[in-house]
Design brief:
Layout (H helix, E strand, L loop, with lengths): L3 E3 L8 E6 L2 E5 L13 E5 L5 E6 L17 E3 L6 E2 L3 E4 L2 E7 L4 E5 L6 H12 L4 E8 L5 E7 L4 E7 L7 H13 L5 H9 E6 L4 H6 L24 H13 L3 E8 L6 E3 L9 H17 L22 H9 L2 E8 L15 H18 L4
Parallel strand pairs: 3-5, 13-14, 13-15, 15-17
Antiparallel strand pairs: 1-4, 2-3, 4-10, 5-9, 6-7, 6-10, 8-9, 11-12, 12-14, 16-17
Helix pairs in contact: 2-8, 3-8, 6-8
Pfam family, one: Peptidase_M14
GO molecular function: metallocarboxypeptidase activity; zinc ion binding
Protein name: Peptidase M14 domain-containing protein
């Protein structure tokens, strides 16, 4: 049987450029109307019993090539468990991994995928629970729904939203964990939070990019996290409909959930540098981070992004825009494509299950601070 490579499915991305014996040369396809690329997801058939080497030859030109060193490809034979390929390296601009294939089909991905089919199943499952309201806030350029699940009856307006960058699939795993906790009738902390806050949860801000196998952009090649100052129906209807919904409710707390290619840790980025910054208000953001670090070994405070200098914050980014626009305690959560080096898992690396558990810790931390917001 000949070996075939296929990425013609929900969230798929790869191009086979040639074979040399048991070595397959590949390229990641750019986001539509964009130069961004890094996400890959494909399957291989006909390789059972063979030892194959895969080479992504255009890795050096990807959006974040500095993220490849120390990274390990994810592999699955059942699309449920996604293990790290130990024999992964990045040398001379080529991402390479070698595996012994023991099944008729095998899948590879940049991170454990979260497909649009999984998204629809999540919305249907959680949306059917008591006390949950599902709204379609708007539609994407490809006509897909921007889903928002609202939970709770309290006066504090809280927003969690994820996957502005569609290749950051760990973020929708995070949202699945958050939603499952919020509807768990046996979780006393979640129930107390629902009484004090109304939580608006947008699991996927970029369905078009998710389905198309993009790394960072929507169907028009637009980076949604640079559209929050002036979103438009033509470029960024996803941001426009979510921001309009936020305008209708107000926001006291917001978390924008992302993945980071290079830093092997979970960390928060805040809104230093906005015109409205005050130290007492910013202290609430810092206190949230301290409490989260105390709550779980999967979060830390040492590694992260450089803070913006006073007056230099980019208000086109959601965290800065929401802090300035609403006075919200607003933050970006970043999770790794690699592993959390301070608390590693050699088999799975940073994983869907750990993303979901981190969501639980984030909600527990919020519950302990909600009266202070």
């Amino acid at each position: 049987m000949s070996i075939t490579v296929n990425a013609a499915f929900d969230s798929g991305n790869i191009r086979l450029t040639g074979t040399e014996g048991d070595t397959l040369n590949l390229e990641i396809v750019r986001d539509h109307q964009s130069d961004f690329y890094q996400w890959f997801h494909f399957r291989v058939a006909g390789a059972k019993g063979r030892r194959l080497t895969f080479r992504i030859t255009n890795a050096a030109g990807s959006a974040y090539p500095f993220g490849w060193p120390g990274y390990r490809t994810r592999m699955s034979t059942d699309r449920q468990a996604w293990r790290q390929v130990v024999d992964t390296d990045y040398v001379d601009g080529v991402l390479r991994w070698t595996v012994e294939v023991d099944s008729d089909l095998v899948w590879f991905a940049y991170f454990a995928p979260y497909t649009m089919e999984q998204h629809d199943a999540l919305v249907a499952r959680i949306g059917g629970q008591p006390g949950v309201t599902v709204r379609e806030l708007g539609q994407t350029l490809d006509g897909r729904a921007i889903d928002c699940l609202t939970i709770g009856t309290g006066p504090k307006q809280v927003w969690f939203y994820a996957r502005q960058h569609p290749g950051e699939s760990m973020t929708e795993w995070f949202m699945e964990g958050a939603l499952e906790k919020l509807v768990d009738v046996s979780d006393a902390t979640a129930q107390a939070l629902r009484e004090k806050a109304t939580l608006h949860m947008v699991p996927n801000m970029n369905p078009d990019g998710s389905f198309r196998g993009h790394l960072r952009t929507n169907a028009a090649g637009v980076n949604l996290n640079r559209e929050w100052h002036t979103p438009t129906p033509e470029r960024s209807p996803e941001v426009l409909c979510v921001r309009n919904a936020m305008d209708a409710t107000g926001v006291v707390f917001a978390m924008d959930v992302h993945g980071d290619e290079a830093i092997p840790a979970n960390f928060l980025a805040g809104y230093e540098g906005i015109p409205a910054w005050t130290d007492p208000h910013g202290e609430k953001f810092y206190e949230y981070g301290r409490r989260l670090a105390a709550a779980t070994p999967d979060f830390q405070l040492e590694l992260g992004y450089v803070k913006s200098a006073p007056g230099t914050a980019n208000l086109s980014m959601s965290t800065n825009q929401l802090a300035e626009r609403f006075g919200a305690v607003s933050m970006t959560l970043e999770m790794p494509f690699k592993d959390h080096d301070a608390n590693p898992d050699p088999e799975f690396g940073w994983s869907p299950e750990r993303s979901k558990k981190l969501a639980h810790s984030c909600l527990d931390t919020l519950a302990g601070m909600i009266d202070e917001l």
